[in-house]
Amino acid sequence: MAHDASSTLVTTATSETRLSRGILTAVALGFVLLFLLLPLATVFIEAFRKGPAEFFAALRDPETFSAIRLTLLVAGIAVPLNLVFGVAAAWAIAKFEFKGKAFLTTLIDLPFSVSPVISGLVFVLLFSSQSMLGPLLQSYDIQILFAVPGLVLATVFVTFPFVARELIPLMQEQGTADEEAALSLGATGWQTFWHVTLPNIKWGLLYGVLLCNARAMGEFGAVSVVSGHIRGQTNTMPLQVEILYNEYNFVAAFAVAALLALLALVTLVLKTALELRYSDEIAASRRH
Amino acid sequence: MIAMAARTSTRWRFRQPSVIPGFGLALGVTLAWLTIIVLVPLSGLLWRSSSLGWSKFAELALDERTVNALTISFGTAFIAAVVNLVFGVLLAWVLVRYRFPGKRVIDAMVDLPFALPTAVAGIALTTLYAPNGWIGSLLAPLGIKVAFTPAGIVVALIFVGLPFVVRTVQPIMEEIDKEVEEAAATLGATRFQTISRVLLPGLLPAGLTGFALAFARGVGEYGSVIFIAGNLPYVSEIAPLLIVIRLEEFNYPAATAIAGVMLLLSFLMLLVINVIQAWSRRRYGYGA
């Protein structure tokens, strides 16, 4: 921060009066309270409204349990896939100069600018029985929509850019000198990657994976479109929240929601810790 | 790899020569994954839209319910983005310039909407703003209804869009050179004049970027909105929800048409904002 600490304590020509500082701070914090803190508190208060016994009973419901398992499964497939892709994309884009690089970077960001519902819709159009692929897959008895593969595809689509986006600026900043040194000392390509590049980018990679995972486990719109909402089979945790809520089973809905909120809080804590501790080893900008 | 580099080094180069290995593999993986996950599904949507034929597409897109849903989506997203621009800049200012207890926590909490699943945010906001909720019951005697009206949609979109503005403006604010403010003060500007005539115009490009991101996210948002909106056709039904409804009716052409119009409008909007941004960066921006 460029300004000196004393400027916030006394009124100078380049700071606001005490009164206006107080008012501005109060308005900003009031906004945060109203739109961020109260909704978060509501989740936990509603989940424990009828006591911890009800809360834990709601989580032991078999359908909820299978939703938790499905969410872990889908994220467990989607996140590693995008991890490999993200590293490959960052390697190609950050370590080399080639034609069409800017265009490729734009294409990678594309899923962020598409509505989650449209992200799901594209896969429905691709694999429905009215499409070209659908009947073909059906004849081989391969089920994509309303099954795990569809959920994974939609999740991979919406979380596609996270890891690549975090790694590209970081690896561009680090340049190629370390790798060139390793190669000139006789390391093979893979040795260079495992022993030189990976240690350099590990915190940035973790940061990207963290955000990717949070979105993968929390995705609602895209997954909702391809899931078919088969109870106990194709409902992920966010979809289970919706079903329970629409059945006016509020304690159970908020119990599942509380688990997801807990995941969000853990993500935020780890993310903040990474930003504070390893700010030099994750991408310079904090933009998403 | 080396052989390939040697071959491509004659005249026109696809890529600059480099001793770093793995370009072919990394780019290959990137392009393959990008094609399978993003390009094929999205071009499937475009192909489906175009195969409807112009008159059929126009008929579906200009359907009264569709036009209403699109108006609601873009209108509420615009209002929410304006609110977020004002309060996001204020919040970034307070976080960058002032000191108060719990600042670190508040700073970290700004990212909550990125981490919290949208369905969780949706049911929490609905509970808070419903007529019998904490905030809703305070507003009800004043005759203000938020939940189950378009105002509820705006509230949900303020929640999801807030971090975009704060996180794009905050890093630029941290880099503001104090000398600019000192110069303004020595030339006789009041503090208010310095802020409104010197500092804020310089933040315009970053503010517009944040506004655009929040707006784009708001237009496509689904999970947090559907709980609080009430989803009354022609009144509080958003476009992504109408896509889902058409899909559930197996009316794929209509779903495709709405998605096509949404993509087209979002694209046009980003184009306009890019032009405004380029202009404001030339006119005011810091650093660039």
From TrEMBL, chain A:
InterPro entries: CysW_permease, MetI-like, MetI-like_sf, Sulph_transpt2. One of its GO terms (molecular function) is ABC-type sulfate transporter activity. This is Sulfate transport system permease protein CysW. CDD domains: TM_PBP2. GO terms for cellular component: plasma membrane. It is a multi-pass membrane protein. Part of the ABC transporter complex CysAWTP (TC 3.A.1.6.1) involved in sulfate/thiosulfate import. Probably responsible for the translocation of the substrate across the membrane. The complex is composed of two ATP-binding proteins (CysA), two transmembrane proteins (CysT and CysW) and a solute-binding protein (CysP). It holds the Pfam family BPD_transp_1. The lineage of its organism: Bacteria, Pseudomonadati, Pseudomonadota, Alphaproteobacteria, Hyphomicrobiales. SUPFAM superfamilies: MetI-like. It comes from Sinorhizobium medicae. Its main location: membrane. It comes from the Bacteria. Residues 68-271 form the ABC transmembrane type-1 domain. It is found in: Cell inner membrane. The chain crosses the membrane at residues 23-48, 68-94, 106-127, 142-164, 250-270. Keywords: Cell inner membrane, Cell membrane, Membrane, Sulfate transport, Transmembrane, Transmembrane helix, Transport. Gene3D superfamilies: MetI-like. The keyword Transmembrane helix applies.
TrEMBL record, chain B:
Gene3D superfamilies: MetI-like. Keywords: Membrane, Sulfate transport, Transmembrane, Transmembrane helix, Transport. It is a multi-pass membrane protein. The chain crosses the membrane at residues 20-47, 67-96, 108-130, 142-166, 198-216, 257-279. This is Sulfate transport system permease protein CysT. InterPro entries: CysT_permease, MetI-like, MetI-like_sf, Sulph_transpt2. It comes from the Bacteria. PROSITE patterns: ABC_TM1. It holds the Pfam family BPD_transp_1. Signal peptide: none annotated. The complex is composed of two ATP-binding proteins (CysA), two transmembrane proteins (CysT and CysW) and a solute-binding protein (CysP). Residues 70-273 form the ABC transmembrane type-1 domain. Belongs to the binding-protein-dependent transport system permease family. CysTW subfamily. The keyword Transmembrane applies. It is found in: Cell membrane. GO terms for cellular component: plasma membrane. The gene is cysT. The lineage of its organism: Bacteria, Pseudomonadati, Pseudomonadota, Alphaproteobacteria, Hyphomicrobiales.
